Backbone:
């Protein structure tokens, strides 16, 4: 099989490693790729959000399968263009990717499908925002209505800060901002592969959204992750498939927006059961970096089965025993304006997954984005995996780098609890 993978991040490097390891893959092309992906694939230039350019590249490399990593190309219609060129694509159409691209659309679909989620108000101006904040009370949750890579959300007890974020979201477009009820409970990322009808869940994972230890500071794209979740209720996956995934997929089919690809369910496990915080239309980053090292099912065949509507015929997923932990190394300044160009050393070890890295003029590896790389460890249990991830992290250095020291710590200590 000839595979074209679109994207440049840590998720894409992890996908590339698994695709390259699948014996069915005879050619792997990544576009635009990063220095880590260059080790396992041929890199090509492309503007990932240009549907015609991606479809042309897929045709040129005679791809049997295109895998789209990030959300922006999906929202821009890249999967539609690839399918129109007669090539199988793992990734939803623009119509279905609105599930991630528009918080208001996502809420509308969830309400129609009776999917449990936070009550929310889409507000068109400051007065509506203020009324919604008072209706739901603190902690306040205010969300930008567009794509914001996880950074468009403010969760705060400070009403003035909530209003200020709403103003900032409203200002550039005079569009709308979403205010919602706060969901109390541990967060879980459950990824489901789907061809629009059949749904195959992966292991549940947990991501760490805040920049600082102890879940302090602003939200980021994700600072670390682990899987599986030793504390999760045993019925979690079945409950989410029944109450969230199947109703949602049905509603999308009914709206002519069949979802084919990876449905990312971001959930809060509340006292009233799992509720959806957000959907994403692609693999999560950095959860992918802990799930794929545990997955023993060959990845290309699995994604091809989903892309071609044959997921129901695919054998069940198989997983390695044990656990995986990944720790992100971010640039100084992230999640604000990251400082780039810092020299990185130690990043060629196995288990280092590249995100925002580049080669400087002299060939040295330098930082080129907010989240620079992550170090993944696996082990027979979470404690062993965590130790391995941090051991590897300690051997990768970058001036000014930021890293959380508590990824998976509460789970190892057994202090994560689901409210009842
Ligand atoms: P989102 O971009 O919607 O995923 O939000 C980013 C992060 O903000 C989530 O991962 C949560 O940590 C937090 N968050 C968003 N919405 C809520 C909510 N309704 N209740 C509690 N936390 C939330
Ligand atoms: N890990 C969060 C995300 O991928 O959006």
Residues:
């Amino acid at each position: 099989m000839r595979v074209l993978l679109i994207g440049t991040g840590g998720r894409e490097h992890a996908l590339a490693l698994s695709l390259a390891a699948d014996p069915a893959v005879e050619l792997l092309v990544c576009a635009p790729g990063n220095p880590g992906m260059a080790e396992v694939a041929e890199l090509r230039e492309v503007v990932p959000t240009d549907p015609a350019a991606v479809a042309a590249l897929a045709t040129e490399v005679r791809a049997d399968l295109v895998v789209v990593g990030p959300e922006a190309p999906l929202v821009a219609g890249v999967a539609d263009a690839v399918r129109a060129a007669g090539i199988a694509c793992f990734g939803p159409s623009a119509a279905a990717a609105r599930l991630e691209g528009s918080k208001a659309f996502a809420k509308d679909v969830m309400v129609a499908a009776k999917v449990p989620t936070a009550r929310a108000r889409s507000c068109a101006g400051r007065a509506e925002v203020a009324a919604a904040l008072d209706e739901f009370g603190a902690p306040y949750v205010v969300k930008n209505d567009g794509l914001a890579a996880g950074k468009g959300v403010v969760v705060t007890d400070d009403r003035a800060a909530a209003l200020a974020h709403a103003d900032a979201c409203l200002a550039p477009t005079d569009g709308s901002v979403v205010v919602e009820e706060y969901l109390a409970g541990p967060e879980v990322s459950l990824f489901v592969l789907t061809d629009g009808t059949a749904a195959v869940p992966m292991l549940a994972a947990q991501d760490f959204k805040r920049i600082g230890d102890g879940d302090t500071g602003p939200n980021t794209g994700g600072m670390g992750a682990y899987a599986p979740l030793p504390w999760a209720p045993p019925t979690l996956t079945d409950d989410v498939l029944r109450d969230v995934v199947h109703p949602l997929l049905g509603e999308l089919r009914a709206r002519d927006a069949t979802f084919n690809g990876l449905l990312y369910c971001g959930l809060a496990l509340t006292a009233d059961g799992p509720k959806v915080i957000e959907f994403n239309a692609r693999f999560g980053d950095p959860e992918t970096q802990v799930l794929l090292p545990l997955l023993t099912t060959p990845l290309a065949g699995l994604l091809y089965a989903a892309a071609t509507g044959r997921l129901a015929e695919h054998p069940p997923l198989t997983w390695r025993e044990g656990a995986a932990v990944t720790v992100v190394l971010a640039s100084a300044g992230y999640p604000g304006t990251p400082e780039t160009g810092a020299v990185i050393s130690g990043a060629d070890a196995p288990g280092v997954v590249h995100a925002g890295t580049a080669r400087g003029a002299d060939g040295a590896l330098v930082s080129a984005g907010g989240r620079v790389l992550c170090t993944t460890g696996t082990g027979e249990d979470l404690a062993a995996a965590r130790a391995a991830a941090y051991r590897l992290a300690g051997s990768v250095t970058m001036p000014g780098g930021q890293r959380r020291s508590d990824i998976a710590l509460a789970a190892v200590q057994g202090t994560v609890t689901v409210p009842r």
Summary: The mean pLDDT is 95. Residues 150, 207, 221-222, 280, 284-285, 287 surround glycine (ligand 2) (CB under 6 Å). The longest helix spans residues 236-254. The chain has four domains: 2-94, 121-180, 187-313, 323-413.
